[in-house]
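Re: the request from the purification team.
They wanted to know what the chain is likely to look like in 3D before they choose a buffer screen. I agreed to run a prediction and write the result into the notebook, where they can find it.
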Amino acid sequence: MGKTDDSAGVARGVTVVPAGPTVTPDGRSRPFGVGLWPSRVRSWWLGAALLAAAAAAVVLGPAGTSWLGHPAVQAWRTVCLAITVQALPFLLLGTALSGAINAFVPAGLFARVLPKRPALAVPVAGAAGAVLPGCECASVPVASSLIRRGVPPAAAFAFLLSAPAVNPVVLTATAVAFPGNPAMVAARLLASLTTAAVMGWLWLWLGKEEWLRPLLRHRHTGHRPGHSRWTEFRLGFRHDFLHAGGFLVLGAMAAATFNVTVPGAVLDAFSGSPWLSVLFLAGLAVLLAVCSEADAFVAASLTGFPPTARLAFLVGGPMVDLKLIALQAGTFGRAFAWRFCTATTVVAVAASVLIGGALW
């Protein structure tokens, strides 16, 4: 299923005991017994975090006493649960697609479909994001699976950024949220595709594969001859979902904390300045972590802000938010996540200002 021997053994519940020093995926040796257990413990710990969050949502209910029944705690619980429940179906979709790509899709398919030159593969992959009817949580495991199957990382990252923002579900929701304003739909489509392509090309120019986790730096061939494809799909799906689900919960907790601690009056303080409003709503999109299927309705409610600022909210949110930062750090590595998310935010704001300024 395209995993390392260590993770494959973990998924089957088998403990591997080597006879001597082992070799890590990046080619370095390690002493006997070192590093054998963390991936197993980490995957199950993240799955346990997801279950713990669901249990906390039940325990910290209206019947709670003392500080557990405080309105702020109840609001935090509601927001955290809403973000998690809203994103879970799409995370399930993404991990299922990831497992299916790894187990069933022939290794040479992507090489035949994408242009040979990586610079041309980037915009093609970005445009292909329109075929995934999901949110940003679904695109992360799919992009990871594409890289493991030999797709250039730059093309996979362009797909990762465009899929949550240009798919038909999101564009339809944007049209419904902004009735009689087709310019907002067109601006979101153009700014999102531009950001995805620019980030893909930036990775080709400046990106370094050592920023990625070792599992992604070493390409895999997916299906292993002699093994059941359905078993590989099941084990890959379980591993990816438990791993990504824990980081989703952590991101939802961070977003909920912001929601209940920042007063609404802060919004009014920034709405008067065109430049400050753009920067503020771009930052607000990162902190609120609203699913891309619903963010258009949030943006439409921010009537005190100019259209360009609301466009920055719509373009930046599906590409960089707290839950996405956590998911990307867990999937691709922290060294990648902080660089990529920072650059994506800058490019998304610039694209929104340029395209919004041309349309309004």
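For the purification team: Strands lie at 22-23, 29-30.
Please add any questions underneath this entry.
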